[in-house]
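Appendix C reproduces, verbatim, an entry submitted by the partner laboratory led by Prof. M.T., so that reviewers can inspect both the input and the predicted structure.
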Amino acid sequence: MIDISDRVPKSLTDRIVSAETAAEYFANGMTIGASGFTPSGYPKAVPLAIAERMKKNPFKVNIWTGASTGPELDGALAEAEGIKQRLPYQTNTALRSAINSGKINYIDMHLSEVAQQSREGFLGKIDVALVEAVAITEEGIIPSTSVGNTPSFVQSADVVIVEVNTSQPMELVGMHDIYIPLDPPNRLPIPITKAGDRIGTTFIPCPHEKIKYIVPCDITDKTRALAPVDDIARKMGAFTVDFLKKEIAEGRMPKGLLPLQSGVGNVANAVIAGFVNSDFTDLEVYTEVIQDGMFDLADAGKLKFASGTAFSPSPEGLQRFYKDIDKYKKIMMLRPQEISNNPEVVRRLGVIAMNTAIEVDIYGNVNSTHVTGSKMMNGIGGSGDFARNAYLTIFYTQSEAKGGKISSIVPFCSHVDHGAHDVDVVITEQGVADLRGKCPRERALEIINHCAHPDFRPLLLDYYERALAATKGAQTPHLLDEALSFHQRFLATGSMQK
């Protein structure tokens, strides 16, 4: 068994067991509150052992996390057909397939709301908090590369099982800021006025008597590779920088900008990378995930501070982070996601929210989650937390997909996650649509003319003009029998083109 004696108090060494022993504790119908936010800081050894048990003697559990996790948790349990309910965000292929075939009850939620709803019992009761840690101290648990909902799950669960992962460096100690707000009616203002404000502890408070088992583990985070920054992503990044420079020139933004937030994935990372080659300096980041682009900003001397809830770099980026962790530690911090995504703090700081969309309709509604209106992709994640409350909300999408068969600009979204009221700016590789101060009819022309792909622009203009005539200039012109015609055509023919 892996030696973790230097990472656990002597008073707890009698609770060190194998993953197989810990897995025996889990029973059908239990709800597990797991650490992890993206494939970072999630438990690995125990879920793999649980999955093996499920294959021999089938049973199902409910899995609550911070966001997505890695293959050892979401993947292994989904493949063992051992998940009954899952929330609040996921990216695993096997899990997604089970969700879209009705085998798993998936609850898509705003990430900032999960902790409070779990504490208040809205979602049911947490039986076990299953947590990856760097170490356990006399005071509590030191998380690893993510925080997510772990502090709240530990607080609410009857039992805590901790995986102490020796692949996670001890240098992570001190990078966390754990603050659990009181719930209404006792809640106090969250005292954050700058991205780098520290308001909590470096550990998750946990009475030792609550810890049932401690499991040694050396399985690494399985972070995802990021696509190279291509010409399309580069254009969107350049459009963003130019747009923000104009905002500064108009006096709507300070010279050093306001704190940046970017979502998960390739486009979001590429947009942040666009700032590396800009002349912006002293940038602050108040976001969910810290990806490779943030390290680029730090290495270029342009990052003042980055606050998030998880490190979610590429595999190469993770090694880069570990190699220079002492340098990054001075300007980076991880918080619980109910703080990193907190609407109160986002509004106070004046965050610039930059997130991706599956599709955007001509009036500015955004679909972030569903393909052709019914098939779940990943989930809303934290985009809603930021979009509704940001100083400036930008959504990105490539103007077309599937080799030109799909237009990402459509007459009406097949599913709406972010209403047009929350969307300020839309950016594609075609250009920028600034929707602020425009009525729906003006928004439609702005989006079609600046963001739609030229191959689809005539179809979209034709739809809009006929809808305008048919409704006699209504506030939001639509042809109800054609509003989803792009999607219907794609399902029937494999292309949105006529």
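Residues 128 and 246 are 51 Å apart (CA to CA). Additional entries are available on request from the coordinating office.
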